[in-house]
Amino acid sequence: LGAISNADIVIFRKNDDLFCKKIKKEPFADYIFLVSENKKYEDKKVDNREFEQCEILGAVVSKMAIETFKNFIEVVG
């Protein structure tokens, strides 16, 4: 958890499930909130020890609109 900053979006595995969630840390708390950009899913409060059992696969460093991505692929392809 030390390498993850507040508001980072991380990709992680818990058991056999993959997740992409924004991390919301509370100062001096022993828990974090996993925040979904998809409002169909509620935020989840998770104990730090429970989250440390997850495998962190990476972090989102940028985002791109799907139309921009499609245009890029057409130009490159």
Topology pattern, helix = H, strand = E: EEEEHEH
Q: Helical stretch count?
A: 2
Q: Measured on Cα atoms, how large is the radius of gyration?
A: 15 Å
Return the average pLDDT rounded to an integer: 90
Largest sheet: 5 strands, antiparallel
Task: State the distance separating the first and last CA atoms.
Answer: 39 Å
Q: What can you see in these coordinates?
A:
- This protein is an alpha+beta fold.
- It has one domain (9-76).
- It has two helices and five strands, in the order ββββαβα.
- A five-stranded antiparallel beta sheet has the order 4-3-2-1-5.
- It is elongated, with a radius of gyration of 15 Å.
Give me the secondary-structure topology.
Elements: E1 9-14, E2 17-25, E3 31-35, E4 44-47, H1 48-52, E5 55-59, H2 66-76
Antiparallel strand pairs: 1-2, 1-5, 2-3, 3-4
Protein name: S24 family peptidase
Domain Peptidase S24/S26A/S26B/S26C: 4-61
Pfam family, one: Peptidase_S24
How would you sum up this structure in a few lines?
This protein is α+β, with helices and mostly antiparallel strands and 77 residues long. Helices cover 21% and strands 38% of the residues.
List keywords for this structure.
77 residues; alpha+beta; 2 helices; elongated; S24 family peptidase; LexA-like; Peptidase_S24_S26A/B/C; LexA/Signal_pep-like_sf
